Every structure is written in structure tokens, then in C-alpha cells.
């Protein structure tokens, strides 16, 4: 198993070590433990947004083709180890089976597969719009519409990109960060907290 060098929880915009005792504003989200936070995925109306694991570089090459991983920015060895560690953290929290959806980008698909918590289903609304910013509003609306139609009565994990996560939550996530989000009765989405795993 990859060596975990640092784990931390983010509450809102604050990133703090797990050793600190945390309290958040909403009683339904109070936790000071990463396992408790991740275990919320077993409850109705919670889901996880994951920024793909470490992939050196920024954006994608000019010759990018969505169906050809050779033309894309991909996970390196450290990124693969990070993704496997993320999956182990989820399993340790009791999330052994989940509905797993992913951007069609290879680095997101590979991250999702290495979690090893369920078959991976490509979802175009999770695709990056980093190099097509005019798509941001439309695509985020599409994702919100899709989420509003999901029962979220089973653990649900979405593997995607920084820009997509920021558009939905206003948070700039780290590579490999697992964000736990709550959907309320009005289909509003609120970040409960997140777990960051850094690796050797």
C-alpha cells in the first residue's frame, strides 16, 4: 500500500490536519475524523466530487483527442499511487461499493478505476472545460440537472477536474482531493468537507 505522508480535512476554505478537532456550522456535518466524513456517502443526498489524482502539467496538449490517452495529460506513478490510496481511504470508511461516474478524460477515468469501488461510467458533463471556458455555465447547469435527477440513495462518486469542481462548489481542490457535498431539498449543493491525501 502506498505510504500516506499527510492527510487533512478541509471544512469550507480551511485546510487543517486531522489531528486538530474540527467543528463545522451544520450539525448534520459535524465530524473531526476523515472516516466519519467519507462515511457520509452511505447516507442519502451526499455524494463525492474527486479531482483526478496527480497528473503533471496543466491543461492538455494541442493535439488532444478524448479517445486517445496518448494525446492527453495523464497520471504519473505518484498519481496512480495517490488514486489507490484514495480508494483505500474510502474502503476503510466503509465505502466498498459505489456508483462511480467520470469525466471521459483518461486521467479521470484512471483515477476512478484505481479507486476500485465499482464499475466506472463515463459522464460527459464531468468533462473538463479548462480550454473551453465558454462551456462553463452550460456544462455546470447540465451537471446540476443530472444531479437533481439522481436518487443519491447509494454511495456516489464523481471523478472530474478542478474547473468543474470550482464551478459547482467555489472551492479550488488539490489533486486527489475528495470533497463531500450535500444536496438539499431545493437541489442546492453545499460542501461539507473534504479529505486530501498526499503521497510519497
How would the blueprint of this fold be written?
Elements: E1 4-11, E2 14-17, H1 34-39, E3 46-51, H2 77-92, E4 99-102, H3 106-115, E5 120-122, H4 136-148, E6 156-160, H5 162-169, E7 178-183, E8 189-199
Parallel strand pairs: 3-6, 4-5, 4-6
Antiparallel strand pairs: 1-2, 1-8, 3-7, 7-8
What is shown here, in short?
With 200 residues, this protein is an alpha/beta fold. It contains five helices and eight strands.
Would you kindly provide a written description of the structure presented here, covering whatever features stand out?
The protein is α/β, with parallel strands linked by helices and 200 residues long. The protein has one domain: Phosphoglycerate mutase-like (Rossmann fold, 3-Layer(aba) Sandwich), CATH 3.40.50.1240. It contains 5 helices and 8 strands, in the order E-E-H-E-H-E-H-E-H-E-H-E-E. Strands 2-1-8-7-3-6-4-5 form an 8-stranded mixed sheet. Helix 2 (77-92) packs across helix 3 and helix 4 (136-148) packs across helix 5 (162-169). It starts with a strand and ends with a strand. The model is unreliable at 1-7 and 12-32 (pLDDT under 50).
The CATH superfamily is identified as Phosphoglycerate mutase-like
Q: Taking all residues together, what is the mean pLDDT?
A: 84
Q: How do the helices and strands follow one another from N- to C-terminus?
A: EEHEHEHEHEHEE
Main β-sheet, spatial strand arrangement:
2-1-8-7-3-6-4-5
- Give the overall shape: globular
Approximately what portion of the residues adopt beta-strand conformation? 15-25%
Low-confidence stretches are: 1-7, 12-32
What structural class is derived from the secondary structure elements? alpha/beta
Q: Report the total helices.
A: 5
CATH C-level label: Alpha Beta
Number of domains: 1
Architecture (CATH level 2) name: 3-Layer(aba) Sandwich
CATH topology: Rossmann fold
| Major pleated sheet | 8 strands, mixed
Amino acid at each position: 500500500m502506498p505510504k500516506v505522508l499527510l492527510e487533512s480535512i478541509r471544512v469550507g476554505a480551511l485546510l487543517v490536519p486531522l489531528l486538530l478537532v474540527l467543528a463545522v456550522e451544520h450539525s448534520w456535518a459535524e465530524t473531526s475524523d476523515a472516516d466519519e466524513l467519507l462515511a457520509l456517502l452511505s447516507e442519502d443526498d451526499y455524494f463525492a466530487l474527486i479531482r483526478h489524482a496527480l497528473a503533471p502539467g496543466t491543461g492538455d496538449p494541442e493535439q488532444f483527442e478524448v479517445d486517445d490517452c496518448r494525446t492527453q495529460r495523464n497520471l504519473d506513478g505518484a498519481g496512480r499511487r495517490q488514486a489507490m490510496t484514495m480508494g483505500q481511504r474510502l474502503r476503510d470508511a466503509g465505502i466498498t461499493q459505489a456508483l462511480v461516474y467520470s469525466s471521459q478524460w483518461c486521467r479521470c477515468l484512471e483515477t476512478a478505476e484505481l479507486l476500485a469501488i465499482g464499475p466506472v461510467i463515463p459522464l460527459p458533463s464531468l468533462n473538463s472545460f479548462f480550454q473551453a471556458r465558454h462551456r462553463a455555465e452550460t456544462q455546470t447547469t447540465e451537471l446540476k440537472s443530472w444531479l437533481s435527477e439522481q436518487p443519491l440513495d447509494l454511495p456516489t462518486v464523481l471523478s472530474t477536474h478542478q474547473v468543474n469542481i470550482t464551478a459547482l462548489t467555489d472551492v479550488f481542490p488539490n489533486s486527489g482531493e475528495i470533497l463531500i457535498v450535500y444536496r438539499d431539498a431545493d437541489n442546492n449543493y453545499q460542501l461539507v468537507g473534504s479529505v486530501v491525501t498526499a503521497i510519497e
